[in-house]
Design a protein that fits this description.
Length: 305
Amino acid sequence: MIEREWRPDFRLDLAGVLAPLRRGRGDPSWRSVGEGSAIWRVSTTPDGPATVRMSRRSDGTVVAAGWGPGARWELDGLPALLGAHDEPESFVAHHPLIADAARRLPGIRLGSTRRVWDQLVPAILEQKVTGIEARRSWRELCWRFSDPAPGPAGTMPRGMRVPPTPAQIRSVPDWEWHRAGVDSARRRAIRAAAAVAHRLEKAVELGGEQGRILLRRIPGIGVWTAAEVAQRAWGDADAVSFGDFHIPTVVGWALVGRPLDDVGMLEVLAPYAPQRHRAVRYVEISGFRRPRFGPRFSPRDYREM
């Protein structure tokens, strides 16, 4: 085990900043203890797997402990992970709801994992399916095809798991993908990404639109998936998830009082460039709930097809 303490010079909502990295309550690579007072996160790194436990003292200092061959890499990147490189101070709100959220939640920042692969697989799994379906598939892949987390997290009851590596993903046979509820289109995209995973990490270095363009060179990775990765891997403040089933509707109701499509959302968010994703993030965490009409979308189970 190695440890690090870091005291940010800004207000920090530890659980709020890390929340986008969690893939549902049953995410095997994530665990929150004591209502978010301590967060355990398992990841892959260029040096190997790592488990990191993070908590905050009353004076604002973040205390982190790491296990595994990648622990040093993760702890070196702790400030970036928690938003030290983000610049929310330059953001200007153009809608009352967004201005109110920014005022009430000053500890929310955009963090950077500095790692594409761990964000790419769950993002592809979330393509064109419900969150319930995608999270179920992510759990299946982690529990059945990846390794136990380094350190005590791997030996806990129902211990944590490392996200599957590219090599482990390439070894999953077709029938096991079916058993995990992953259709052929998403399966092909994940396999294509695994074949060139080491090259895709350059997207973090490129950042912004250039980083997203690099990701979109992989068949099956479009604007939505690239944006979802960019938001987390390098804290891209302008990466809007165009093509999302829910976001345009929520943004529309929240900001202009009616549902929007992607074109309409592009127009409404135009004043926020180059921080359009930050504006959407404030809408998402503001507490706003859009009106509900009609039945909810029912998840499909590809294991029965």
